[in-house]
Amino acid sequence: MNNPARVSTRESSETSVRRFTHIGRMCHGLIFLIIASTLYLLAGPMWRVGQAIVYAEIRGPRLERLHGFDVATPVLKLEEGYREVPVIRADPGGFMQSAGFGDCDVILSHTRAEFYKMLYNCPGQTEKVEVVNVVDLDAPVPRSKARTLEFTVPSS
What we know:
Layout: H1 4-67, E1 69-72, E2 75-78, E3 81-84, E4 87-90, H2 95-98, E5 105-107, H3 112-121, E6 126-133, E7 147-152
Antiparallel strand pairs: 1-4, 2-3, 4-5, 5-6, 6-7
Helix pairs in contact: 1-3
């Protein structure tokens, strides 16, 4: 004969084990979510910084020699505030000069790394770059005088 007290005790212990297992699964899911979110928040900026270093510091000098230009990245006053912008100096007779770039053309549409990345990854494609020619680097850069250059990126 089954003792009713024993049956209810066994049922209650099985129920608590199921609850404990369910809580454990929830905690594992929560821990996984916390770890994944942390990795995403840390890896994203690290990836972008790594890409900027690769394009601006490693691939950049070769692209400059290949396409005939030099780049400086001063911090200039734009209409929206101060920002580090690439300033192009096109070599006479080089690709950049034939594409329409001049001396002291400030690139408004790309950062230095983005500009190098475009030159490296898009050979044969037509690209657009917004630039403004600046004579006085201490004066605010007038976006109203900007022009768009459209050119086909040459093969490396």
